[in-house]
Amino acid sequence: MAVQTRYHMNWPGTTDPYYLYNTSENNARKTLYGVTGIPYLKVDGVQTPSPTSYTAVRSAINSRRAIASPCTIRVSTSFMPTLPADTIYVTVEVTADQDMLAATNRLYVALIHRCHTTGILRWYQFRNMWPNTTGYSFTLNQDSTLVYTVACTTSTGWDLNDMRFIAFIQNSSTKEVLQSGFAEVTTIPLVINEFMAYNVSAVQDPAGDYDDWIEIFNTSDSDVNMLGKALTNQCADPDKWVFPDTIIPAGGHLVVWCDNELAEPGLHANFTLNQTIDTLVMYDNLATCYLQIDRKIYPAQSQDISLGRVCDGMPTWVQFTTPTPGTANSGCADSVQNLAALVEGNSLHLFWPPYHWATAYTIYRHDECPFEPTPGDSIGVTTDTSFVDTDILLTLPSASYRVTATP
């Protein structure tokens, strides 16, 4: 499949809303390709067929498809309801099929917006690019994998059903695009949160067996019915195991045992997990054509050690020597960097997303160390307790924190 996006220019008029939305990054791509007039088309950054000739465009795309890429790209998104705006985490996994040691390798992640015209014709307009217009520089040895994550804060008026994230690798010298991929935005507030694929003596299922397991986490403040959704370790078989009528409460966890023992108490999938490299995928139901909700590709696993998100729903994955199936991941309480803050009047609300309803913490103005937070302030969180007002400050797990507002 060809991944396509449109960058907008400031001519013939200067009022194009898609150009004005992000003038600097649109102009950066114009400069990169030396665009002097529109319409203008580039295929993989190196071919320039006539944009009005279907035959020429198809020929250019087919010729590029015939060239082997040095890598594969997998793009996935996860939705995190937070305050004051929702966050979409985009994870890009680049696996090198051969050495990629050139200093000119650049990885880009872009948000594009789907627009419709008549019939089935559609195109995708450029919105934003990460990390910046010069891209993320990297090198990879053969068979190694780069995992790159960006966080996108949603804006008022966005229709997330019309959003798509693309990732592409481009040679900054020759401008050749070496590989690309994309993922639709899902607003289903579920993630694969933790799993164990090599359970020898760590965690028992309700029948007393030490079996593989997967934990699903509801990132929202509303219950989610899992009926019809599916888990699989084979992308070609999206409905390998389908959830029965099961509710995950707001901010709750659900454990699925992967042991092919369907008659045992609890939820048991009809497949087991590989101890070596494998892929876990969670899909929505048949009505959405099994839209991907979340995916995790994992390396070889260690005995009795789980792999999970350092804090529930967060993009960073770590190993846990003490697994926590069905409860909050043990990194949550101590992950200061994962704290989020919301300014409201003369107080600050701290929370680990998405716990902004259940376990929010509030720090009010301190008379001995006053601050006047306003919306838009940058919030710094440290373990300095010298100005903590212990009379009104709730005790946070493992430590107390001082919060300062910085202009």
Q: Would you write up a description of this structure?
A:
By secondary structure, the chain is mainly beta. It folds into three domains: 17-70 and 104-184, no CATH class; 190-320, Immunoglobulin-like (Sandwich); 336-406, no CATH class. The protein has helices at residues 17-21, 23-33, 54-65, and strands spanning 71-80, 87-96, 105-116, 122-130, 136-137, 145-153, 163-171, 177-184, 190-196, 212-218, 224-225, 230-232, 241-242, 247-248, 253-258, 268-269, 278-283, 292-298, 306-309, 317-320, 340-344, 347-351, 361-364, 378-382, 402-406. A six-stranded mixed β-sheet has the order 16-15-10-9-19-20, with no helix packed on it. Strands 3, 4, 5, 7 and 8 form a five-stranded antiparallel β-sheet that branches.
Count of individual beta strands: 25
Average pLDDT taken over every residue: 79
Radius of gyration: 24 Å
Strand order within the widest sheet?
16-15-10-9-19-20
Distance between the termini: 46 Å
What's the main sheet like?
A: 6 strands, mixed
Structural class: mainly beta
Binned strand content: 35-45%
Unreliable runs: 117-121, 333-339, 342-349, 351-407
Count of DSSP-assigned helices: 3
Helix content: under 10%
Overall number of domains: 3
Helix and strand element order: HHHEEEEEEEEEEEEEEEEEEEEEEEEE
Global geometry: elongated
